[in-house]
Amino acid sequence: MTRTIVHVGRKIRVAIEETTDSAGRPVRRDIVMHPGAVAILPLIDANHVCLLRNYRSTVGDTIWEIPAGTLEPGEPLDEAALRELAEETGYRAGKLGKLLSFYPSPGVLDEVTHLFLAEELTPGEQDLEPGEEIVAEKVGWDQALQWALDGTIRDAKTLVAILFWNQTRSTR
Amino acid sequence: MTRTIVHVGRKIRVAIEETTDSAGRPVRRDIVMHPGAVAILPLIDANHVCLLRNYRSTVGDTIWEIPAGTLEPGEPLDEAALRELAEETGYRAGKLGKLLSFYPSPGVLDEVTHLFLAEELTPGEQDLEPGEEIVAEKVGWDQALQWALDGTIRDAKTLVAILFWNQTRSTR
Question: In this complex, which of A63, A102, A110 lies closest to B156 when CB atoms are compared?
Answer without folding.
Answer: A102
